[in-house]
Amino acid sequence: MLPRPTRCFTPRLLASALVPSARMLSGMPPSTPLVPPDRQPLLNARRCVIKVGTAVVSNPDGTLALSRMGALVEQLVELVKQGRQVLLVSSGAVGLGRQRLGLAKDVVANTANVIDRQACAAAGQGILMSTYDMMLQRMGVTCAQVLITQGDFLSRERYTNLTETLDRLAALSVIPIINENDVVTGCHQLDVQQVFSDNDKLSALVAAGADADGLALLTDVEGVYTKPPHEEGAERIKVWTQNMQVEIGEKSTMGRGGMASKIGAASVAASGGVHTVVASGFDVANIERIFNGNDVGTLFTASDRPNKRKRWLTLATETKGSLWIKPDGISKMMLGRIIHGGDVASLEGTFAVKDVVSLRSEDGEELARGVVQADSSALNAML
């Protein structure tokens, strides 16, 4: 069973102004009884994020899947014509670069070969972006490249700059083409917990941070199944619910995701207030079906959207340490009051001023996350 995203209270050190929930755009397709109620928010979605993986944009030999990419672009343009704001998270640079550089697939598929994968990303990102730009320009739509690193989420200032830039591009009817900047962060430390380790999680963080209303996570299968879809008895799960357990098959060889990654990312996006569907990208018409509210793929229904600061703390940060809070301190948190050094029973980790830490009860349960105003040495001296 996959872990659920951390829930937290909002003590004063976490408080901020509320962010508006999903907005409805006049002129969008009207409500229809043919749309299941739980899919209605997707029909009404104004800001839409679409994520496509390596298997969608490239062929098995590493070359561009031009017909599929062309159909994908037509789907994106159609959403724009409907008055929606569109953001695309696209994998594929490493696979395309591998083919251009003439490297063996099994060499690049080995995540330990960091430099080779970064070199492939450098060669492939230009191919990927120029293809999108050419196709979209011919259909009268402008796109913009946005390359993201782990640090863009870990830093509150950079996170705010990123989300505000995406807001502005969307307002200008420009489609951001988003990818991890693998040339400099290229697939390193994959076995160490990071804010994101693949574009599935990246798309979820982007969707939640950019106040998206809907996210389409396109993959190489028709949705989440009770077991690998090629096995007898596998059934598509129409609506995901908490505590579901499924059998996970093998992940992509050129990409870094897999079905476990899709489920985890979709759960993160949903907890950030984004209605999310995992569906097949081989039939790119699924994009239209998803945002028409049709019953395709697997739906992860959105929770109430937290305010933007709380989303950053719970979804887009990596804690540098933990503070175990005394019962009186927990009572202060519940009342939204400031926590002082005297409220801390013990601490773990080494952290600096303004680092994010986990606030825990004495039995170890994470209650909240916060930004500390004293480093670990100074706080230790208060205990």
TrEMBL record:
CDD domains, per the entry: AAK_G5K_ProB (cd04242)
Highest rank taxon of the organism: Eukaryota
Residues annotated as signal peptide: none
Residues annotated as domain Aspartate/glutamate/uridylate kinase: 47-278
InterPro entries: AceGlu_kinase-like_sf (IPR036393), Asp/Glu/Uridylate_kinase (IPR001048), G5K_ProB (IPR041739), Glu/AcGlu_kinase (IPR001057), Glu_5kinase (IPR011529), Glu_5kinase/COase_Synthase (IPR005715), Glutamate_5-kinase_CS (IPR019797), PUA-like_sf (IPR015947)
Swiss-Prot/TrEMBL keywords: Amino-acid biosynthesis, ATP-binding, Cytoplasm, Kinase, Nucleotide-binding, Proline biosynthesis, Transferase
GO BP annotation list: amino acid biosynthetic process
GO cellular component: cytoplasm
Record keyword Cell division present: no
An annotated Gene Ontology molecular function: glutamate 5-kinase activity
Ligase recorded as keyword: no
Protein name (record): Aspartate/glutamate/uridylate kinase domain-containing protein
Lineage: Eukaryota, Cryptophyceae, Cryptomonadales, Hemiselmidaceae, Hemiselmis
